[in-house]
Here is the input.
Amino acid sequence: MSRENIETNHFFQPAGLYVHIPFCIRKCPYCDFFSITDRSTIPGFMEALIQEMSMTGVFPFRFDSLYIGGGTPSVLEANQVGRVVETAHRSYRILPGAEITLEANPGTLRFDKLTGFKSAGINRLNIGVQSFRDAHLNFLGRIHTGRDADTAIKDARKAGFDNLGLDLIYGIPGQTKKSWLLDLQQAVDYAPEHLSCYMLTYEFGTPMERGLRKGFFQALPESLAGDLFEATSAFLCSRGYQHYEISNFARSTDFRSRHNMKYWAGVPYIGLGPSAHSFTGMKRSWNCRSVSQYTENLNAGRLPVAGEEVLSRDQEMIEAVYLGLRKADGIAAEAFEKKFGVSFHGLFGEVIADLRKKRMMNATKTRCALTCRGMRFLDGIASRFVQRME
Ligand code: SF4
Here is the structure.
């Protein structure tokens, strides 16, 4: 199949729409997402966002997911979220039954706000709990307490959210397996439809990474963080969750994050707002990382695109391997061969055989996927695949 045909075929799959709300109450020291704390610019930003939606509505895609992320989208009031959802429906072909997610910070929620989000068309709420332990929340610099998280989850249920995701972080200095499993147990007690469990990472240039370099605290040993990863999977699977992606768990296939699945499957998505990325099948582009530049550009009728690249065949192959290995469904050999015109097992057969021997991979003729143990060593394993392509 030619690359042009692949690009054209993408038009038949529903795409994802992402809206980046770049405001937070306070910056968390480990975070490297783009956001600012000056909320006086929200009204100007909202006008610019509406303008960007009206200028980009020409994309020939249908969408079955809208994800409002950030930043902290729940700093917006319900009527502002309603305006985003309504304008998205007016500007794009959003399919009936689309998954419409809002990321929410427990420190910004009130019951009336939650009912307002629901009435605004949000049908999936993803709450950034991170931990139920105040000591850990303090270390992470979060604005909320464990009690705030508890109230937010209960209020969200009362407000009628029947598709609820909770985000948690593990690998926090001082954390033990016991305290992490207690966090997980508390999360599972709310029976969320989805759980994302991320390992704390020290992104270069963040205050937390600088603190680590200066020796202000010690990171959890890598081996313990790896053990927590495996313990997470064992615990949540024993409680009926599917471990469908390295950091993600769903109560059933229906509750997998439809939007995030697009990133891992190489399906197109359009990103709006400062720093948001778009992928249209072969081309990737990204918006400027500044609220003032974003607003100025759109006020002047210009799209705020800061750069773009057309992926080479090699880049596409590397991405297909990295993203495929993250998923419990793994990589489909036939689709890979069709797309890249190479024999999947011819190229990777040796690596796959070795990983199977070490119980890090399950493989058949048609598909290969990492086991939980293999996922623990994802980066090293993905590099072995990439070396075979060189
Ligand atoms: S609330 Fe979220 S986006 Fe904002 S600084 Fe903290 S981690 Fe980053």
Summary: The pocket of iron/sulfur cluster is lined by residues 24, 27-28, 31, 33, 35, 70-72, 105 (CB under 6 Å). Residues 1-8 have pLDDT under 50 and may be disordered.
